[in-house]
Amino acid sequence: MAQATEEKAERLQRFLEGEDAPCPICGYNLRHLKGTTCPECGAALELRVGSMDLKLGRWIALLISLVIPVGYGVVELFFAVLWIARDIISNGYTGQLGLSFSWYWPLMVLAGLTGALLAAAIFLRRRFWLLTDQLQRLWLCSTFVIVGAAIGVYFYSVYT
Ligand SMILES: [Zn+2]
Fold first, then answer.
1. CA 144 / ligand 1 centre spacing (Å)
2. 15: pLDDT confidence band, cut at 50, 70 and 90?
3. Cα of 116 to ligand 1 centre, how many Å?
4. Cα of 110 to ligand 1 centre, how many Å?
5. Considering the chain, what is the average pLDDT of its residues?
6. Separation of 27 CA from ligand 1 center, angstroms?
7. Which of 25, 56, 69, 72 is 20 to 30 A (C-alpha) from 111?
8. Residue 7 Cα, ligand 1 centroid: separation in angstroms?
9. Which contacts (CB < 8 Å, 24+ apart) does range 73-80 have?
10. How far does the centroid of ligand 1 lie from the alpha carbon of residue 8, in Å?
């Protein structure tokens, strides 16, 4: 264990002997680093392999487009619970919940479906990262269009 740590430290220092590399935290040039912490900010450092093919932007955009309807559903559900609680506290339980559920269930279905897609996007992230540029864009655009259309239809039906 201690030996493995030492070897790692040695590899890091050997790499930085001939290489300009910024500290990922403060940007200080780590060339000729001694030890395994940044001399400028004290951040613990390690040697890692990166890939130019990992384009997180598209995946994050996909997550955001799914998080918005899920988040909206959660917020609405929270206010519905508050509303019902307030109604019961002020009027007692009358057998009616004082809230129209007709426009709640489509929102909950939408939030549930996008929640499932969000879980899939996180769980299957490596599959997404391995897709070609074209397929990543296709997935992203389709998600934008479908989620956008669902939100549009929802608001149109609620507020008209
Ligand atoms: Zn630093």
1. 38
2. very high
3. 39
4. 44
5. 89
6. 6
7. 56
8. 22
9. 73/107, 73/108, 73/110, 73/111, 73/112, 73/114, 73/115, 74/111, 76/104, 76/107, 77/108, 77/111, 80/104
10. 19
Is it the case that residue 49 has pLDDT exceeding 80?
yes
The domain spans of the chain are 1-49, 57-159
What is the CB neighbour count within 10 angstroms for residue 15? Answer: 13
What is the 36 CA–ligand 1 centroid distance (Å)?
11
Tokens of 19: 């290489």
Full-model pTM: 0.70
pLDDT digits (tens, 9 = 90+) for 75-114: 988 988 888 888 888 888 777 765 666 677 888 888 999 9
DSSP bridge pairs for 22: 29
